């Protein structure tokens, strides 16, 4: 048991350090480009009259947060294109496409009178220590070497994750956008989905050869770079940043936001009943 005088008040210790609010909202791709491992089988017509009503309900809730800056999942290097499209939209010369960046990000920014939207996505630093051919050969080696029961377990886990994605995929056609976003951003769903990165190839390796983890670094690196871009965007103590991004990014970004002294994380769910 700690002595009474050994306690440490973190809030008190950092009370003179300014920080900004950050809301991260995980989304699905309204116009899916098919780049993820799981290929959606169900589509939502975000331009339909019903979905546009549901979209307004969703945006109205985010608007209560009153962000000062809106960040979107577009490569930072494409900022000039984002600026051009957004200015065209403000001038009434650009019709919003199905992408969530436009349907949520652009609309919200216009409602709030923002003059700019911020692109914060980043390419990952790849593992250049291995070629595609070497990767394939090593993967075959570890599969051949693996215990059959272990392989069966990993295949079962992969099937269970796939069934989970199939459920999510179909669910978006059965519930409102608000309910679906609440589902996507449920901590249990987010954390469980992230577990898919930690099975299969991730477990491959032997001795000092960390084949699996080394080839998973790109995903973590990309999210670290995204968070780095958020930090560069932030003016501590002055901003309320809203980030709209694919839900798969959220577990890592949430962890970083929770531990960053520069941000105080705000939850979308808390603004529903305000």
Unreliable residue runs: none
Biggest pleated-sheet summary: 5 strands, parallel
Strand content: 5-15%
String of helices and strands: HEHEHHEHHHHHEHE
Q: What's the overall average pLDDT, rounded?
A: 94
How far is it from the N-terminal to the C-terminal residue, by CA?
41 Å
Shape: globular
Number of helices: 10
Q: How are the strands of the largest sheet arranged?
A: 3-2-4-1-5
The SS-based structural class is: alpha/beta
The structural domain count equals 1
Structure description:
The chain is globular. It has one domain (19-271). It contains ten helices and five strands; from the N terminus they run αβαβααβαααααβαβ. Helices cover 48% and strands 11% of the residues. Strands 3-2-4-1-5 form a five-stranded parallel sheet, with helices on both faces.
Q: In a nutshell, what does this entry contain?
A:
This protein is of the alpha/beta class and 274 residues long. The protein has 10 helices and 5 strands.
SSE topology:
Elements: H1 10-13, E1 20-27, H2 49-65, E2 69-75, H3 79-90, H4 100-111, E3 118-121, H5 132-145, H6 148-171, H7 177-184, H8 187-194, H9 211-233, E4 240-246, H10 250-259, E5 263-266
Parallel strand pairs: 1-4, 1-5, 2-3, 2-4
Helix pairs in contact: 2-4, 9-10
